[in-house]
Amino acid sequence: MSSESEKWGWQHVSIFGRFDKGSGTKRWRCNHCNLRYNGSYSRVRAHLLGFTGVGIKSCPAIDGSLREAFHILEEERLTRKKKLTSGSAKPSKRIRISRSTLPDTTKEDMDEIVARFFYVHALSVNAANSPYFLDMVKAIGCFGPGYEPPSVDELSDSFLSRERGRIEKSLALVRESWPHTGCTILCVGCLESMLGCFHINIFISNPRGLMYLKAVDIDDIDGADNVFSGVLGDIIMEVGPRNVLQIISHLDDTSKLSDSLMLSSFPHIFWSPCTSNSICMLMEEIAEMDLLKPVVLCAKEIKHCITTYQQFSPCSFNQNMEGSSDPPSMKFAPSFCIVQRIFELKRLLQELVNSEGWKQWKISNPDDILSIEEAILRDDFWSDAYLLLQLFEPFALEALRNKGIDEGTVKQLEELIENRWDVLFSPLHATGYLLNPRYHGKGQTKDKVVMRGWKATLERYESESANRRGLREQLSSYWRLEGSLGDEDAVDCRDKMDPVVWWENFGFETPELQTLAIKVLSQVSSIAMCQEVCQEYDFPGPETSNRMRVERVEDLVFVRNNLRLNSQRNGISNSFSGAKNAILCSPSEAKTWDDSHIDQTKVTYSQSIHDKMC
C-alpha cells in the first residue's frame, strides 16, 4: 500500500473527521471549492483530477492549467509506486483524459497533445497519414468522454491475439483459393548486421490476395543455403506442396543453391528470379557503360551541389532532390533515379543558376562549381541524360542507332541485355506466354525457346508421361480452336477478358490444360510489392521485443504486415510507403502473368532479342 505522504491530494483538502479508526474513509472539505464530501483518497483524487463515474463531482474551482499540473503529480506518484512494486503488482489503472477534464481545450490544444505524443516516443510523423491512425482518432471522438485506453499488457497480449485471429479469419478465403489458382512463395531477405543474422520475410501471393506468412532468421550465414532450404521445405508443407507453383527470391547465390537442393524434394516447384530486381540490375550495368557513365557522374555532382546550396539557402530552392522514387528503386537502380530526378528539374535548375542568390553563394563558396553550372546550362548534358532515359523506357537500341553511336557500343549493350535475359528467363515465363489467350496465334509453337520452356514445365509439373501426353493433346486443341475454345464468344473475348477468367469460362473441355493455365497465369513475377511493405521498421524495437514473448513478437509482425498489405490492396497510402515507381510495381496490387507476360518482358529488355519470342 502506498504511504499517505505519497498521496499529494491530501494537501488540497482539509480533514475534519473519519468514520472508523484505521479506516481510509474520512470527512473532508476541498480547499478550492469548499465543498464537503465523505470518502477515501480515491474520491479526493477523482474530485481534483476531474474523473467521472466514482460518485463525486469534479471540482468547479480548478482551471485547466492547475488540473494539468495535478495530472503530472499523479503520473509521478504512479511511476514511483510502480518502481517500488518492481512490476510484481497488477498494473495501475489508466488515467482517463476526457473533454470533461479539459473544459477549455481548443483544437490547437488537442493538436499539441497529439504532436507531443509523436515527439516523446520518436514516432514517424508520416504515421499521421495512416488510415489506422485516423480511424483511431475518429473512434475515440465517437466514444466521447471517459474513454480509457488499453494497458500495455492488454496491447501486447489479449488485443494482439484478438487482432491476429481477426486477420487469420479474413485470410481464410485467400487460403481456400490456393488449390484452384496455385500460389507463389515470395522471399524478401536482408543481412541484418545489428542482429548478426540473415532475416527473411515470407509472403504468399495469388490472385485472391497477397498475405504475409512469417519471418525467419538464419544465424549461420556461411551455411545459409542449407538452412534456407530447410526453412522453405517447412513453409511449403505448411502451405501445401500441390498449392505451390513458384518461389521468387532476390537472394542471388543462396537462391541458386536452394533451388538445386529443393529440386529433389519438390520437383514440380519452379524457382524464378525477380523481374523488377533483374531489370534494376540491368539498368545499373547499362549506367556503367563508357558512353553513359559520365552522364551519371555529372548528375550525381549536380545533386550534391544543389543539396549543399539548399543548406545555405533552404528557401531559395525547396525541391526534393530524391524525387518520388521509392526506396526499393533507389536501392537497386540509383543511377537511373538520380538522372531521372535531375532531368525532371531541368527548367528549375537552369533558373536557379541564373538567380542572384546563386551568384552570391557562388562567390562565397570555395568549391569550384563552374563545371556544374556549365553542365546545367549546356544542352549536351541534357541530351545525353535524355538518351539514357530513353534506353530505360523501354531498352531501345534504336535510340542509340539514331544518335549515330558506333556499333561497338550497341553490341556491348546487346550483350548486357542478352546476359541478363538468360538469368531472368524461366520455363514458367514461356508457358505463360504460350497459354495467354491474348497472344494466341503469335507463332509460339514454332519458337524453340518457347517450346523448350513448355517441355520443361510439363516435365516438372507432371511426373506421369500419360498425363503429359494428355496435356500436349489438349494444347493442340487450344491452338486449333476446337470445341468451346473456338466458340465465337471465346475468340471475341481473348483480348477483352482477364486470361484466368477466360480459361475459367471457355477451357472446360480441356480440364487438365485449364487447370495448368489458371495456375501459371495467376502467378506474379516480382517481389517489389513486398519490399514496399518491409522497407521500414521491419523489426520491433528492443524495448518491445524484451517486453513480449517470442510468439507475441511474431504475432505483432504478422498483424502489422498484413494490415499494411490490406491498406495497399485497398489503394490506401500507408505511412511507411513512398511513392511507387511504375517500373517496379502496379499501383495497388501484384502483377500477374496477365500484365507481366513473356513477350512484354522481352520487349522491355530490348528489341534486339525480338526474334526469340514474338
TrEMBL record:
Full protein name: Putative HAT dimerization domain, ribonuclease H-like domain-containing protein
Domain HAT C-terminal dimerisation span(s) in chain numbering: 492-563
InterPro entries documented for this protein: DUF659, HATC_C_dom, RNaseH-like_sf
Domain DUF659: 150-302
SUPFAM superfamilies reported in the protein's UniProt record: Ribonuclease H-like (SSF53098)
Recorded GO MF terms: protein dimerization activity
